Amino acid sequence: MARDPRFDVLFEPVRIGPVTAPNRFYQVPHCTGMGYRRPQSLAALREVKAEGGWGTVCTEYCSIHPSSDDEPYPSASLWDDQDIGWHTLMVDKVHAQGALAGVELWHGGAASANHYSREVPLGPASMPAGVNDPVQTKAMDKADIRELKRWHVEAARRAQRAGFDIVYVYAAHWYLISHFLLPSNQRSDEYGGSLENRTRLLRELIIETKEAVGDTCAVAVRFSASSGGEDDDQDTEEPREMLELLSDLPDLWDITVHDYSYEMGTSRFVEEAGLEATMSWVKSVTDKPVVSVGRFTSPETMLRLVRQGVVDLIGAARPSIADPFLPQKIAEGRDDEIRECIGCNICYTGDQTGTPIRCTQNPTMGEEWRKGWHPEQIPVKGSDAKILIVGGGPAGLEAAVSLGKRGYEVTVAEARRELGGRVTLESGLPGLAQWARVRDWRLNQITKLPNVEIYRESVVDEEQILEFAADRVLIATGATWRRDGMGRRHEAPIPGWETPSVITPDDVMAGLTPVGPVVVFDDDHYYMGGVIAESLRRTGLDVTLVTPANEVSTWTSHTEEQHRIQARILGLGIVLETGASLVSVGERTVVLESTHTGRTREIEAANVVMTTSRLPQDALYHALADRITIQRIGDCLAPGTIATAVYSGHRAAREMDAEVPIGVPFRRE
Ligand code: ADP
Ligand code: SF4
């Protein structure tokens, strides 16, 4: 199908200093949890983006010197010549696809505690370093500043030798250069105090980097259009003055905002194009091209932003992770096939936990090299086996799509009228509407696969499965929340759990309306406890959220949401009991116990929502395991995230009739 000619503008080349981007699709620097530790995986990941049509593909943050070491978070590095080879690997692959390669040179300053290198962290002043680490930076003297500039130039030269087309000066977020820019920099020399002085280091770095590599490389600056503030009160005055001072010095402005949790906010908190209002002034003060992000998945939004002169290049990290072939799909008029990012930030948890990136929507992300998975290609079927999938949640639907694409004859039986399983239910909770995209993309794909048939409102039992006589059966029946409160804290049922007042998130999502006061006991620690509390509070109930952790939804610190969730919970007037466990349930009361002191107290609770752990719905599997070829996938195999369910369904489809390595099931670096 030909594309709508209105979108032609997205495929125009854009000149960036000495280089030309072949189109406006620009994969901005984003972390992968791979960095210098897993260069082969990284090169293959970036290659797939370039193959999918991203005209520019950048690295993650790339440390220029051992005094900027982010361990245990794996960054890239260009500390010395030894690092060049691994970058060349990526650059060559990106170039072979006709795209530009960019490198985000980075010095972390106070953000780096240097756990690995044991070098002293650096800052414009002596300030606390790392993430609550008990160390401070050394206040940089003039000699340190000279050294910093030398490191940057040397790293830029190495980048040039590796073949990069774009070299960054990273002046945003909470890293070294941004600490010089902020009003808190009150050094008494020419690098602090006045706005001009605070901008001096950045100016010098741009000039010196251009002098060093500007003959072949464009020099981009990543810069915050706001110096902080709440979402609706972003302070853009100073950044604007600074940008006016530097205006046409770099070849490209990569515009972001100071607050990372806003820049890459989850869909629960930040809409598509969330930065637009904060940065729409930038192009009026520079003639150089501008790129910015906004979780763009809609070609209409992209077109509007280019037409209105907000950006020249469509920046994307997450949309390129969820769908590395997004540009190609627009190019071919297949935009209905874009696998849209759902804004869950599971991709970011890889970096946060020092492990390779994964994505809820795209199960091949991070598996390109180690498993040879490609987001758009899958081997043809290995037999004529007929396949029955029981359950149409994320695992079942992903397996159906992938097996369907392999050419198998697939039947899906789903008990409910609505497909999508947990995704459909959870997308009805506050802020999670976009999660339905996990279902919608798969259903759309299935409409194009005549060999996949879906039966709704079909509760399948043991006999029916036997009667159907499929060659292979995949059980994707999911999991249900436990009512007895067992989980991390309690290894036995909580006394009183059988009281009718005890309900679960499944009951709430099924439409049961509790009466107040309600206690939500959250021993799950991801989003569910917080979002159920929010949902009930919004109906006007008095809600107390009890969690043994010291903060609400503690695992969401990995998705950059935790403080936003805590602010929302408190802002809604939900009573938050942290460091507390639920130890028994009475008629209209519950007993809480401090996890620190063991002291107990009773509070009123007409309903209790147990959000502790889940039980796999695997009875069908166990009934048939010895009789037919049957396998469990998704939450039925092991309850987890939506990402793990999708991955599980995809893996089962890939491995059907395929040779799977015995032992370690993937290549290692
Ligand atoms: P997962 O995350 O592993 O995909 P979900 O809980 O999201 O799991 O989805 C499981 C789906 O299986 C739900 O839509 C549920 O209605 C369906 N299901 C459960 N038991 C049966 C059954 N016996 N027959 C058909 N569908 C079932
Ligand atoms: Fe988007 Fe979630 Fe995938 Fe990240 S993990 S790219 S936020 S769908």
Structural description of this entry:
With 669 residues, this protein is of the alpha/beta class. The protein has 21 helices and 28 strands. An eight-stranded parallel beta barrel has the order 3-4-6-9-10-11-12-13, surrounded by five helices. The chain has a five-stranded parallel β-sheet with strand order 16-15-14-17-28. A five-stranded parallel β-sheet has the order 19-26-20-21-22. Helix 9 links the parallel strand 12 and strand 13. The longest helix is centred in the N-terminal third of the chain and has 21 residues, at 142-162. It starts with 13 loop residues before the first strand and ends in a 14-residue tail after the last helix. Bound molecules: adenosine-5'-diphosphate and iron/sulfur cluster.
Short description:
With 669 residues, the protein is an alpha/beta fold. Iron/sulfur cluster binds at residues 318, 321-322, 341-347, 359-361.
Report the bound ligands by name, code or SMILES: adenosine-5'-diphosphate, iron/sulfur cluster
> Biggest sheet, open or closed, and with what strands and sense?
8 strands, parallel, barrel
* pLDDT < 50 stretches: none
Please state the structural category.
Answer: alpha/beta
Q: What coarse outline follows from CA principal-axis ratios? A: globular
**Fraction of residues in helix:** 25-40%
Task: Kindly report the spatial arrangement of strands forming the biggest sheet.
Answer: 3-4-6-9-10-11-12-13
